[in-house]
User: Fold this.
Amino acid sequence: MSIMSMRERGQGFGTKVIIGLIIIAFAFFGLGSITTFLTPVARVASVNGDDVTASEMEVAVERNRRMLMGQGMTPESLDEDELRANVLQSLITRKLLSQVVDELSLTASDASLDQSLVQTEVFQVNGSFDANQYRLVLASAGYDPVTYREELRLDEALGQLSEAIQGSSFMTDAELLRTTSLSRQTRDVTYITFNARDLETDLEVDPLSVQDYYDDNLDQFFTEETIDVAYVQLAKSDLMDAVDVTPEALQTFYADRIDLYTQDEQRRIAHILIAVSEDQDRDAAMAQIIEIQSELAAGKPFSELAKTFSEDPGSAAAGGDLGIAERGIFVAPFEAAAFELAAAGEISPPIETEFGFHLIQLSELVPAAVTAFDVVAESVEQAYREEAVKEDYIASMSELDEMAFEDSDLEGISDQLGLEIVELRGQNRASNTGILSNAAVKDALFSPDLMIDGNNSAVIELNDGAAVVVRVTGYAESILKPFEAVTAEIETTLKQIKATGLAQSLALEVVARLQAGEITRAVAEAYGVEWSVKTGMTRYQSDVPQALRAQAFALPKPSSNAKSVGIAQLDDGDVAVVSVTRVRNPEDSSIPGMENQAISQLLENQLGGLEFQRFQSSLQKLGDIQGQNF
Assistant:
């Protein structure tokens, strides 16, 4: 229960994903809003009569693209069709769930959203909610406070729906004991491995089979098409370096923009809230706040009283501290009182808001201050140079674009604008260094207009301070490599295939001999291999290959004095023969109660998750959904 008028959720059904998107977008892309140029257009899907609009789609696609790029993917490695299909599916699912939320009248209280907002770490500075940080982070991901608030309100309601469905799942005691016993099961395992690479040395490859493989797999032996690239780059920094700067000009520039170098007044506030609720009416709350006011007058510390009495869970533990206050964050009566306080330590009279009664303390006041020129001289000069070349840079880009359209090469552009021609040889569609890391550049280079018609590109802006014109100066098409050039490669491949097949044949022979009753040591000696022994292997043992461990626990429990034998296909073509001789399940009494409880919680969570997935699937099947294959 708090007094902030812009309240957001921080811990609900999908909020961690939203916060993750925001953090990544902020870290990697700065402040550019991704909604700037979107205009309302036709729907891309309909969900039980409710539209998923194209603008919703584009915003979601861009946010997901930024998230993936923040995780290390490049624009070229993104599958645009797959990205858009996944995003559309998620929008459809969210629309379906939101319709259920509306039908059930599920919602989130303002107090709950308040608490989540102030406790969301990405919105905090030095451990406290910060309004500037809040707006900054939201802007970086294309949100504004209103849309973000509504998204998180829905998110918390979806969390209620998810928790209700998942909470309905359960396990019987018998199921729990059985599952716990199986999870702690151990097995005595022996295994031998036939190493495919070792088997390759004695193998020969029929020359005819090499030719046959080549003929049957021609698509594997084509070269990649490549292009030679030339480009010129216009850099704003070059124009800025040429600007004549004088101390007088910088002082004038600084004085004309003094507001940019002025630190606004900062006031840190704290409050004590006594809430009006079903359990406490207005008169009782007012009486309590007056009593606290009396204790303050008697000299008791504000922070101690806040910790003891304040009913704002978001700030009470911090002595009522709400961080640096800014206008537009708090509800109107609270804000008016907070900004009337004139001196650090001053405390307001009781203030009534929709949440109850407050006492507000101005705990710190830092007056507005102008940063001295000497402190910001470097940034002033940078800003001065940028301002000086802004129009020239735009004019130069316009001239560059016009010349790129008119000229048949880059020579005239280079001569007239003094731009160096840079050449790159043998680039392909997978190249992603230098200017080819820019998707727009690569799209232009591999377009028919440049590859086939030989034209210059239009001006392509790489970032806020650089632009290029590119052209293709050479093209090598994809061609089939001659048989002689790939013979050795094919021979190696065929040897690997034969070695894997031989390893599998040897493993099958071993299994047959073991199942026929032969002694394990004798079988190993016959094939020149040794048994490895793992006594008490667990399902989670990390010192054996995963495929081997999976096979060991997939084999049936052997009867007394017998063994279960199977084959595991390992990496690099290796094959293992796996033998299980003993299986142990712990007694119920040997399983600690805390472990039982932890496993029970884990399994119920998993079952609950599956129940919620099934619920979503049923909504998909029963709903009237159009446009799912967009």
Observations:
- Residues 565 and 579 are 4 Å apart (CA to CA).
- Residues 373-406 form the longest helix (34 residues).
- The longest strand covers residues 356-366.
- The chain has a mean pLDDT of 85.
